[in-house]
Specification:
The protein is of the alpha/beta class. The protein has one domain: 3-Layer(aba) Sandwich (Rossmann fold). It is 46% helix and 14% strand. The protein contains 13 helices and 7 strands. A 7-stranded mixed beta sheet has the order 1-3-2-4-5-6-7, sandwiched between helices. α4 links the parallel β4 and β5. The chain is globular. Bound molecules: D-malate (MLT). The site of D-malate has 7 residues, from loops.
Length: 269
């Protein structure tokens, strides 16, 4: 197995959903529940959920063990191919969006459409990169405690004030995040290049979405990506933060369905 895939709904060209850091495919459960009748595949990143450890994923796709989003993208393409999927609408939230950008660079023929949620196409600055390496090392020594401070960073102010059950769910996910996955993903994200150029000639329908209260992926990042794309719909989800799909699954599912239907009018279907 290259990566764990979770299939929902009927057969057909799927909507593939890539989760944010340091979560797993369960992040999409409430969105999937809002998408009856749509073929959906959720994926666990290397070292997360039911997917193998990153070193095993790298070996399976013939890459070095050096943490890299390119490995994740190659593994997504390989796992989908093994499942008989050679064309898909692929959407990712935050880290998942970085993987979508790597897919656009390396496996463009797979993409019938793209969704870029609460993410950005630019590389990290030196301070952000250094912080990731610190968190990676902390995960190896202290485990999931290294990501506990993310709780208030990833949830919007409205969720923190009004949705205690979402806050608790996120707290429990962070507390159970796998240290090997945390360390690998932080190093892979630290190494990622600027990939805005991959959007400039990506001639498929695109969705650029962010929670209005997202403090991690700013509006400027969304505007830059949508300006680079030829066919982008831009959606801002009110009363949601960086984890828009967890905080406001209904509006996020509606936007993803809209993306899928735009693709269906073109090459999907
Ligand atoms: C995520 O939600 O996946 C993270 O915020 C990504 C990142 O650390 O850049």
């Amino acid at each position: 197995m290259t990566l764990a895939l979770h299939r929902h709904g009927p057969d057909g060209v799927p909507l593939v959903l890539l989760h944010g850091f340091p979560l797993d495919a369960r992040m999409w459960d409430d969105v999937v529940a809002e998408l009856p009748g749509l073929p959906v595949v959720t994926v666990d990143a290397p070292g997360f959920g039911a997917s193998p450890r990153p070193d095993d994923v790298a070996r399976a796709v013939g890459r070095s063990a050096e943490p890299a989003l390119e490995t994740y993208a190659d593994a997504v393409a390989a796992a989908l191919h093994e499942a008989g999927v050679d064309r898909a609408v692929v959407a990712g939230l935050s880290m998942g969006g970085y993987a979508v950008l790597a897919l656009a660079e390396r496996h463009r023929g797979l993409l019938a459409g793209v969704g870029l949620l609460d993410t950005k196409a630019t590389a990290d600055d030196d301070a952000a990169r250094a912080n990731r390496l610190t968190v990676a090392a902390a995960a190896e020594s202290a485990g999931a405690a290294a990501v506990a401070p993310m709780l208030t960073q990833v949830l919007g102010a409205t969720t923190q004030a009004e949705r205690p059950e979402v806050v608790e769910r996120m707290r429990s996910w962070l507390a159970a995040a796998p240290p090997v996955g945390i360390a690998w993903a932080q190093r892979a994200m630290a190494a990622r290049p600027d990939r805005l150029f991959t959007l400039e000639d990506l001639a498929v329908p695109a969705l650029v979405l962010r929670g209005a209260e997202d403090g991690s992926a700013p509006q400027e990042a969304a505007s830059t990506m949508s300006a680079a794309l030829t066919d982008a719909e831009v959606v801002v989800v009110p009363r949601a933060g960086h984890m828009s799909a967890v905080e406001a699954p209904g509006p996020v599912a509606a936007a993803l369905r809209g993306l899928y239907e735009r693709c269906a009018q073109g090459s999907v279907g």
